[in-house]
Design goal:
Mean pLDDT: 91
Strand order of the largest sheet: 2-3-4-1-5
Structural class: alpha/beta
Number of strands: 5
Radius of gyration: 23 Å
Low-confidence stretches: none
Number of helices: 17
Largest sheet: 5 strands, parallel
Order of helices and strands: HHHEHHEHEHEHEHHHHHHHHH
Helix content: 55-70%
C-alpha cells in the first residue's frame, strides 16, 4: 500500500465520484470509464477503491493496492507516458479469459499522454468491448482525450476538495501547525498538492518571504532583491504566486471587517499591515495579474521574466490605486 495515498481514503469515499462508481460496482458496471482529475493521488485512490468494490471481499482494497489481484492489469508498463505498445498489449489480450474471477480490469494511468494513434487503437476495443473486460482510464484532462474515446466511456470527474476538507484530513496525521494551515490553503483542492507542501518545511519560510515582500516592497529598484529571493527556489515560483493570492484574499477579508474568514489566521497582524497599504481596488486589480503569471509559467517556462513582470505589475497597480484614493 501507498501510505500517503491511504490517508485520504475516507475523504475520497465521501466524494460524489466514488458514490457513483460504488453504485455501478454494486449493479451494472460499464465496460469503460474515464476517471478525470488533475489530482493524481486522489485519482489513484478513487480507481483503487472502485476496483476493490468491483472485486469484493473484506481485503479487496489491500489486494488491489498490493498488486496481488491477477485480473487487475496496469499500464503503462514503464514510466509516466502511455505508448502505442501499451495499448497494443491491451487490445491483444482483452479477449483472454480472466485468471481468477469473472472479469478482468485494465487500468491505464496518464491517459492524457496518449497520442492520437494510441487512442485510435484503444477505440477499436471500446467499440467492440469484450464481455469479460473493464477498462479504466485515468486522465488529468478530459480535453486530452479524443471525442470518440470520450463518447464510448462513462466519464466520472473527481471534483477538487474544499480547503476545510483537506485541512480536516491533514489534522489526522500532522500537527496543527503553520505547515498544515498553509498546505490546506495553497492546495487548490488537491491532496497531492497538500502532501507536497506539507512535506517541505521550506514552504513556511517561502510564505513568510512572500508576506515580507508584500509588506516592504515599495520601489521598483527593490524588485531585484525580492525577485532574487523568489528565484532562489525556482521550482516553487508557482507556489509563491499562490501565496501572494492567499495573503491578498486575507487582506480583502480584513478590509471587509471579517478577519475570521482569513485563510491564514495566524498571520493576521501582518495581514492588517498589508491591508492598510493596498486598497481593495488594487487587490482586485492584482488578482488577474496573478492568473496571467500562472498561465505564462505553464506556456513558456520563462521563470525569471515572469517573476520580474509580476513584481513590477504589483507595484504599478498598488501605487496607481493609492494615488486615486
Amino acid at each position: 500500500m501507498n501510505e500517503s495515498k491511504d490517508k485520504y481514503i475516507d475523504l475520497i469515499e465521501k466524494s460524489a465520484a466514488y458514490r457513483l462508481l460504488k453504485r455501478d460496482a454494486a449493479g451494472r458496471t460499464g465496460h469503460a470509464y474515464l476517471l478525470v482529475s488533475p489530482d493524481r493521488m486522489a485519482l489513484d485512490v478513487l480507481a483503487d477503491l472502485f476496483l476493490a468494490a468491483c472485486i469484493g471481499g473484506d481485503d479487496a482494497y489491500r489486494r488491489v493496492t498490493a498488486g496481488t489481484v491477477a485480473d487487475v492489469l496496469r499500464l503503462p508498463e514503464e514510466g509516466e507516458k502511455v505508448l502505442v505498445r501499451d495499448i497494443d498489449y491491451l487490445t491483444e489480450t482483452a479477449y483472454i479469459t480472466p485468471a481468477e474471477g469473472d472479469r478482468k480490469f485494465y487500468v491505464v494511468s496518464y491517459g492524457e499522454t496518449m497520442n492520437e494513434a494510441a487512442q485510435n487503437k484503444l477505440l477499436k476495443t471500446l467499440e467492440e468491448p469484450p464481455a469479460v473486460t473493464n477498462i479504466i482510464v485515468k486522465t488529468a484532462s478530459l480535453d486530452a482525450m479524443l471525442p470518440t474515446v470520450r463518447s464510448r466511456c462513462r466519464v466520472v470527474e473527481l471534483k477538487s476538495f474544499s480547503e476545510q476538507a483537506i485541512a480536516d484530513a491533514l489534522k489526522k496525521y500532522y500537527p496543527a501547525d503553520a505547515r498544515l494551515a498553509l498546505a490546506a490553503a495553497a492546495s487548490r483542492g488537491s491532496i497531492a498538492e497538500a502532501e507536497r507542501l506539507i512535506a517541505d518545511d521550506g514552504h513556511v519560510k517561502l510564505f513568510e518571504q512572500t508576506v515580507d515582500m508584500l509588506k516592504y516592497m515599495r520601489r521598483s529598484s527593490e524588485t531585484v532583491k525580492y525577485a532574487g529571493r523568489i528565484l532562489a527556489r525556482k521550482d516553487d515560483v508557482a507556489d509563491v504566486i499562490e501565496y501572494i493570492e492567499i495573503v491578498l484574499r486575507d487582506c480583502l477579508a480584513v478590509q471587509a471587517g471579517r478577519p475570521e474568514l482569513a485563510v491564514y489566521p495566524s498571520g493576521l497582524n501582518d495581514t492588517r499591515t498589508i491591508a492598510a497599504d493596498y486598497t481593495t481596488e488594487a487587490i482586485l486589480g492584482i488578482m488577474p495579474v496573478l492568473a496571467a503569471a500562472r498561465a505564462r509559467l505553464k506556456l513558456n517556462g520563462n521563470v525569471a521574466g515572469t517573476v520580474d513582470e509580476l513584481l513590477f505589475a504589483i507595484l504599478e497597480i498598488k501605487f496607481k490605486n493609492a494615488a486615486a484614493k
